[in-house]
Design brief:
By secondary structure, the chain is an alpha/beta fold. It has a domain of about 250 residues: 3-Layer(aba) Sandwich (Rossmann fold). The chain contains 14 helices and 14 strands. Helix 1 crosses helix 8 and helix 5 runs parallel beside helix 6. The protein is globular, with a radius of gyration of 20 Å. The two termini are about 25 Å apart.
């Protein structure tokens, strides 16, 4: 039975990954470490903690805590590290970059050092059943023009403190493979969307604002392009890369769903309006919202500093070497995502009210 050490597992992508692994693999144990910063929420994995106590262990803590990470390695026979732990919001990195460096760079260096020491067999050799997977982002490549795609060979040219911190971590991961032969893999994904995403990010923010009749702020002219990847497709890709990817490799994970930000916002308005009016389960909610779910909510705001114009990923390498390709197109994924937020209003209200912090602290302390 393999044991996965999943850092940042109470966050958006990390919690979806835990759900995916527990559902798909009956012979895998997970140790989840999460600092529970503002974006970490134990409610995201409450069901798994309650239903699979023998397969999922949660530990509150920081990846920078050397003593704690060493304790985890000494207590469990860790096979795979999957590092989701990161400060990830670009706007917050512009306001204060220091915390991004501490978590996204120094935290990764701490994980690498301990993995190297604990897995080392001597002479740059390691156990044959271990891997360190760094979950990164296409933002490390910088900005594209109107044409072309990022490949694994594209230059690293980050334009925000957030993407610079992720690029720095990627370089450390690469260096530990080259210098120490540590079996590392880097994955770089496009913009994720789906259930449990913290509502500071574009899609859940807009859904929440639409439901509450608030303005929908769009940066600049709204024509910045992103490639959108449904989070479950991303989790499946990581799972496959862990099993089939090459040590020392880099794999881009893209969704083949390029859209402008303004089109995303208009799509959310249209689909949410349709769901509220046509779906019996949501008609009661629609009764109070008919008068304001329209494009008049859109307001254009001053563009973000260093705002990359376009991201787009060429995922041909992961398809060729691993056999992965996206299965959920945006047209279907966005409707499923909206339905999830409509069906989980209590989760959303706990986040937006701030009460989720008390909720997860009480939940953690009771264990």
């Amino acid at each position: 039975m393999k044991t996965y050490f999943v850092t940042g597992g109470a966050g958006f992508i990390g919690s979806n990954f835990i759900k995916y692994i527990i559902d798909k693999h009956q012979d895998i144990k997970i140790v989840c470490l999460d600092k529970l910063t503002y974006a970490g929420n134990l409610a995201n994995i409450e069901e798994e903690l309650n239903n699979y106590p023998d397969r999922l262990t949660f530990i509150k803590g920081d990846i920078n805590n050397q003593e704690l990470v060493e304790y985890i390695f000494d207590t469990w026979e860790i096979n795979y590290i999957v590092n989701f732990a990161a400060e990830s919001h670009v706007d917050r990195s512009i306001e204060d970059a220091e915390v991004f460096l501490k978590t996204n760079v120094l935290g990764v260096q701490n994980l690498l050092n301990i993995a190297k020491d604990k897995w080392d067999l001597g002479e740059r050799e390691y156990r044959n059943d271990v891997r360190f997977l760094q979950v990164s982002t296409d933002e490390v490549y910088g900005s594209l023009g109107k044409r072309g795609y990022f490949t694994e060979e594209s230059n690293i040219q980050p334009n925000s403190p957030y993407s610079a911190s992720k690029a720095s971590a990627d370089m450390l991961v690469r260096a530990y493979n080259e210098t120490h032969n540590l079996p590392t893999i880097i994955t770089r994904c496009s913009n994720n969307y789906g259930p449990y995403q913290f509502p500071e990010k574009l899609i859940p923010l807009m859904i929440n604002n639409i439901l509450n009749g608030k303005e929908l702020p769009v940066y600049g002219d709204g024509l910045n392009v992103r490639d959108w990847l449904y989070v479950k497709d991303h989790c499946r890709a990581i799972d496959m890369v862990l099993e089939k990817g090459k040590a020392g490799g880099v794999y881009n994970i893209g969704g083949h769903n390029e859209e402008t930000n303004i089109k995303i916002v208009k799509t959310l308005i249209k689909e949410l309006d349709n769901l509220l009016k046509e779906n019996e389960a949501y008609k009661e909610m629609a009764a109070t919202k008919d008068d304001y779910i329209n494009e008049s909510l859109i307001t254009f705001v001053k563009d973000r500093l260093g705002h990359d114009k376009r991201y787009a990923i060429d995922p041909s390498k992961i398809k060729k070497e691993v056999g992965w390709e996206p299965t959920i197109m945006f047209e279907d994924g966005i409707v499923d995502t909206i339905k999830w937020y409509l069906d989980n209003q209590d989760w959303l209200k706990l986040i937006t009210s701030g009460d989720y912090k008390n909720y997860y602290e009480e939940m953690y302390l009771d264990r």
